[in-house]
Amino acid sequence: MENEPTFLEQYANNQVKKEDLEEFIKAFTDKHPDKPVWEGIGLSEDEHYDLTHKLRDLDFYVFKRKYKRDIQKLWVGCYVKFIYQMEPETSKPHFEWGWVDVLDVKHELARLQCDDTFQGNRAVTVRTADIVEVLPLKERPLVFYKTMICGECKKCDEESDGFPRDCPKFNFFNAIKNKQSHDIEFIVEYYKLMNGKCDCGGECHGNDCECKE
Length: 213
Known about the structure:
The protein has helices spanning 7-12, 21-31, 37-41, 45-52, 58-65, 142-149, 170-194; strands spanning 79-84, 94-103, 109-114, 123-127, 131-135. The protein is of the alpha+beta class.
């Protein structure tokens, strides 16, 4: 069986279609009655559960397999990049970003407060296996602060990241936005260093690099 391609591998290579899965499962079960069906498909048991309950589709797992996951630890408050799919029948798998609010005891599920790109006030529950990266700490969007401090003020849309010039807390929100822009710059420079690149165009050697001269 070790040399047999999984259904997911065949699907990724356009050798089979989604509609062929049922026939594949029947043939696999007949040939390997002692093997779990998800092994033949190329999924984990949890992934198979989500697939059969139509929470994810095969495209999600093809997308997921393209990216290396190198996470040593997750903790409440960390900022993460994760793979998500709204509705398998109508949406494609894609990346989202957010903060870990809650982890279950086994660290198999995480409740995430999503970033501005996902309507900042939205929370979702995902499998921790679908979290692909822990990113440098990023400030929460204005939606979070509006929820915490704005109370009954209705001078702007409290579910947006914007604020008017006459906002009673303009200076505070403006300072946060400035910090967010610097955070983005920081993350860009951080990844340059992590990928061995810097402004000199070559391999970076920190303070000894020629770009610092």
